[in-house]
Design brief:
115 residues; alpha+beta; Thiol Ester Dehydrase, Chain A; 4-stranded antiparallel β-sheet; 4 strands; globular
Length: 115
């Protein structure tokens, strides 16, 4: 469990936005977020959006995305965040997949910088 530490966080990257289905007029949107992994001052947050039909209660997965945020101190300098340790198999899967996405971002950044 993470301690209650409060810092301003800014968006550093948005990865893999997948639009799976449209929302409709009578839908209620349900947002689920998960802290997947942290590295120094950055962290990956996974977002899942489901649409719930207001009349039938049926839900469908309509969007998934991954965001990288950086925590800042009172001087707007990056500050370390607590390490995230998975406690369940699902959290372990998200933890490992977050590293794969980070490795891809860093590799792409290096490749573009060398051009």
């Amino acid at each position: 469990m993470l301690k209650d530490i409060q810092h301003v966080c800014v968006t550093a990257a948005v990865d893999s936005i997948h639009f799976r289905a449209p929302a409709k007029g009578n839908d209620t949107l349900l947002f689920s977020l998960s802290l997947n992994r942290s590295w120094g001052s950055s962290m990956e947050i996974g977002a899942r959006v489901e649409a719930e039909n207001s009349y039938t209660g049926d839900t469908r997965h309509i969007l998934s995305a991954f965001f990288t945020f950086v925590a800042l101190d009172e001087n707007d300098k990056p500050v370390d965040v607590p390490e995230v340790m998975p406690e369940t198999d699902e959290q372990a899967r998200r933890f490992e997949n977050a590293q794969v996405r980070r490795d891809g971002r860093l590799k792409t950044r290096e490749k573009l910088a060398s051009r």
